[in-house]
Amino acid sequence: MSDHHTDTGATAPRPGTHHRRRFLQGLVATAGAAALPALTPPTAQAVTAPTAFHGLHQAGVTTPQQPSGLFAAFDVHAPDRAALEKLFRGLTARARALTTAGTEDTGGMLGPHPAPDRLTVTVGVGASLFDHRYGLADRKPRGLTPMRAFPHDRLDAGRCHGDLSLQLCADHRDTVLAAFRDLTRHLGAAVTARWSIDGFLNPPRPTGVQRNLMGFKDGIENPDPASPADMDRFVWVTDAGQEPAWAVGGTYQVVRIIRMHLEPWDRMNRLQQEHGFGRRKDTGAPLSGLRERDTPDYTGDPHGNITPLDSHARLANPRTPETDHQRILRRGYNYDHGLDHTATHDLGVAFCCYQKDIQRQYEPIQTRLDGERLATVLTPIGGGYFYTLPGVRSATDWYASTLLTTPAPRP
Ligand code: HEM
């Protein structure tokens, strides 16, 4: 299958913010495209090539994970289908300009020579977009539902769901922020922001994948984003038999805002923590292994004497033939919201994962994790399920073109 983006790679998951805000009516997109390299002054940072924008799939899924990320969700107020199309066309023009030429016209936050900075813009739609407003009910992706509430969730309604979702990732935080301001300004009054959360990846300490805010290496195990076979098996919707034909090339995104309770966590000793994740804290290795990338041995440990049966990694992926199809591509970020109103530090993960079927992949994993020993120190407080649209295929194509231009199936 293919014609995938040339980009790939990935790491683990984590996010932040959200205010209900109506943005000013947007201005007309100015997709500039001046070549940058000759103009770009020398900096301490290597100038990286832009991530390809056009393709069968959107960038930002299999793209090697950039250190800065932001997830946001919006309510759409476009009055009719034509206005919805205009919204997606405008969003496409701005995303194309920002990711390929780095142009932003929101006050010059990035100075006179903004670079693409490996920015990716990944656009999704929530189940609510398929209600009565735009006549799209008959073409809703089969598995697109509102995010379920799981037993340990303490969901804040203001930080859940949305008609439209954005994921912005780049090598630097200011690039992500400038892109977010630019895009929301251009979306204008056609949308209201419901929530957003921004996050970061840590540097390797000392090597390998980054550590989350509990100090554990996070992002080790994933299907291989560089493998089209893995991605077609676990991530991309490839088959028009199961989903509406317009959806081929897309994927389902789950975002979960998960707060960590670090006071009780800090009181646990290292062994308790390692039994919680089922991984070594120093090396990230499975408890049955020595190195970060070693494969855990659960069959030789059926009673969980080495790796507890209710440890996070073992429950998430017990490595049995029955659970083999349940793999997900995790791509989240750490978040730090500073002190909350009780002076407790609000830290956690903007968990994000991609899969071709939420009900067959994410939900069974999440259901098993309801019984994990770490459930007392992790509280999901928000997020949503979204359908990441198929890629923008050419300079004349636009997000959601297949969704909005396919004739409605008539019974
Ligand atoms: C704050 C929340 C979470 C934290 C801190 C966390 C942390 C970790 C860590 C440290 C690992 C082991 C290292 C690795 O393979 O990356 C791991 C593995 C994993 N986690 Fe999470 N995780 C969180 C939430 C979730 C959620 C919500 C899911 C899905 C429902 C999930 C699914 C997985 C999976 C599938 C693996 C790989 C297991 C394997 O293949 O061996 N995690 N997580």
Can you describe this structure?
The chain has 411 residues and is of the alpha+beta class. It is built from 8 helices and 10 strands. Strands 1, 2, 3, 4, 5, 6, 7, 8, 9 and 10 form a 10-stranded antiparallel beta sheet that branches. A hairpin with a 5-residue loop joins strand 8 and strand 9 (345-355). It starts with 20 loop residues before the first strand and ends in a 6-residue tail after the last helix. 47% of the residues are buried. Bound molecules: protoporphyrin IX containing FE (HEM). Protoporphyrin IX containing FE binds next to strand 6, helix 6, strand 9 and helix 7.
What is the residue-averaged pLDDT?
Answer: 89
Tell me the β content. 15-25%
- The general outline is globular
- Number of DSSP strand runs: 10
Helix content: 10-25%
Encode the helix/strand succession as letters: EEHEEHEHEHHHEEEHEH
Cofactors, ions and other ligands in the entry: protoporphyrin IX containing FE
What is the structural class?
alpha+beta
Low-confidence stretches: 1-46
Summarize the entry for a quick read.
The protein is of the alpha+beta class and 411 residues long. The protein has 8 helices and 10 strands.
Question: Topology, pairings included?
Answer:
Elements (H helix, E strand, L loop, with lengths): L20 E2 L45 E9 L4 H21 L18 E6 L38 E7 L2 H15 L3 E10 L27 H7 L16 E10 L1 H6 L2 H8 L34 H5 L12 E2 L2 E7 L5 E11 L2 H12 L8 E11 L12 H5 L6
Antiparallel strand pairs: 1-5, 2-4, 2-5, 3-4, 3-10, 6-9, 6-10, 7-9, 8-9
Helix pairs in contact: 1-2
Protoporphyrin IX containing FE binds next to β6, α6, β9 and α7.
